Hints:
Blueprint lengths: L2 H26 L20 E5 L9 E7 L5 E8 L11 H9 L3 E5 L14 H19 L3 E12 L1 H12 L10 E5 L22 E7 L8 H9 L5 E6 L32 H9 L4 H20 L11 H4 L14 E3 L23
Parallel strand pairs: 3-4, 3-5, 5-6, 6-7, 7-8
Antiparallel strand pairs: 1-2, 2-4, 8-9
Amino acid sequence: MNITSRCFSYLLSTLTISILFIINSFAQHGKPDQPEHGPGGWGEYQHESIEIIGEYGDKADGFWMYLPASPTPDTANVVIFLHGFAAHNPDLYGGWLRHLVNRGNIVIFPRYQKKMLVPIPFKGYTDNAAKGIKDALAFLEKEQKIVPHIENVVYTGHSYGGKMAAYFAVKYAQYGLPKPKALYPVQPGVIGFKEAQLLNYGEMEEDIKLITVVGQKDKIVGDELALLIFNTAGAKQKNLVLSVADESRKKPKLDVTHVAPCAVDSEFKAFRGKNYIMHIGGYRAETDVVDFYCYWKLLDALMDCSFYDKNCEYAFGNTEQQTFMGYWSDGNPVEPLRIFTEPIYPKKSKRKNKKIGKDVKNK
């Protein structure tokens, strides 16, 4: 073998080893897949398709609704899902909506905005959302497609939708809405706007079960409203959950920012065009381990616990089942969720989301 051949062989071997090293590095740092079993898992899916009720979503007080199909159930529990500010195209949350419906739930997605600035921001939102919810329930009663379990209702929402969900959990009777058995505000915010704002949530009935979630890297709304809801809610059973970035891993990073609950699914796109909020949410959204083991798991478990008194260990109590976030592909565990079971009164901080974290311990 001449020098040229030996050099070529050496370079080829080096390149092969480098490629294998890179592939192995990606494999070693791969994120966990969606689990098969338990809350958040795909093995719980009971339906193969979704019926979309989309003809009533064009107005600022309209709604979209998603019904389980293949097979179509006679009855189903109800998830009222309130979108974030200017995030009123359901495709931004489509992956999560699909998960909920495949599990056998009716999902009502009320619209409280026509456009980003229509109506005037933070005015009339509660009236619009309440009308959308009531119209959706009236549609179900008229069409008799599926009988909703009105006694098994959960209010959930992201960002400003989380704020509204908490508001309706206290003021539902005033708006003629069904009483929830569970409340799940995800990264709710913000306190600064009067619309849907309460001084405290002490009037929340104690039999409503509550979980509220904060993202460690959420610099948009932080944790101020989540703390107010959690600390003052009259709910007897309640937890506050902090989704954390796994600092032991530089790549791939876990998204625990404000847009993390978004899980884009184009099948749920209701209209063309995007505002700035939709663009950012769609660009940064990734359906991954934080969805499966945090947002989706906790809501599934909260509903199971509230409706059927099962899987409560996944929803409450700072248990291993509740905090577990899966394993990286190298076998090491993802950093677990942090759970707060008692009120938290931290020192004030200039940074929005440094009120809870490593320096705050469960009481």
